[in-house]
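Hey, quick one: can you model this chain's 3D structure?
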Amino acid sequence: MEGISLLILWFAISIVFSFLCSVWEAVLLSISPAFAEVKLQEGGAIGKTLQEFKKNIDRPLAAILTLNTIAHTAGAIGVGASATKVWPGNEMMTGVVVPVAMTLAILILSEIIPKTIGANYWRELAPFTVKSLNFILFVLAPIVWVSQLITKALKKEKGKSVLSRADFTAMTNIAEKGGELKKNESKIIRNLLGFNKVLAKDVMTPRTVVVAAEESTTIRDFYENNKNLRFSRVPLFQKSKDHITGYFLKDHLLAALIEDKDDAPLSSIKRELIVVNEEFPIPELFNRFMEKREHISLVIDSFGGMAGIASLEDVIETLLGLEIVDEFDGTEDMQKLARQRWEIRAKALGIIEEKTDELKGGTKE
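Sure thing. Here's the predicted structure for all 365 residues.
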């Protein structure tokens, strides 16, 4: 009986410690940075310790793996020695039954079950995990210190996040399918993740549909010819659109009319215009708008000529993934309008042919 009791004791010690290690590991890896930040803001030692664990996760993991290895090794040795005393000379029990039973117990009782519990109830188990791991780290401090030295020596890159933009996009898709994010919310997040790849030429209003005015035109003449103007900002040029000199606000135009400045040229109400090239990234363009407190910029091509106009509205539309249309807008997509106008001119000049009935089902770029 003494041998069986000792066997059960070794078995229980091995399984219990291994169970705890699996729970700690699952909880630690499941805790999100946001949860740790919330706990830190709430105050108390738990939030502070969680932040330390997430910043240097190798330290608590080293303690967990060390204790888990000790539990498995000592348990296997203790159970094996006790089994030999209980069943001396019985190779079937000591060589097959006991090792198989021990393996299955470790797999089910100290791996599958505890890790499932830890992954599903990590919020509730976080305080227990923090307190118990602090004790284990104190007891195994020398071993953890050596383990960290080895880990640091083998690391190739330090301080680099393990998550890429593709990972965040995948997580967004999963959250949308799971119902945590609405479709429009996930769309904005995906647009934001791809924001750095979008250039000014991708969002600008093309030159062919930009409404601009000669700066020497009088305020009265421009108003009489554009009474139904729906744009609040109009670029100004000298001689041609390739020489844009600035822009004016529609409100300033109306104010000048009220003040009887009808004969003054449009250049008298001119404002400076931000100038960027076609390859300018729109995140930087957005920052430029914020710094200059402006809403419109001139986009130039590689030859210095006007390629189009990009506005703060265009940048925000790209981020949100939809067209922002006010009550005065007659056309939602100015780039699409420019393309349609080009096709009409090209057909009139014979540059492209009219589509036949057989080709109407699709387009070819």
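One thing worth noting: Strands lie at 205-206, 213-214, 233-238, 240-249, 274-277, 296-300, 306-311.
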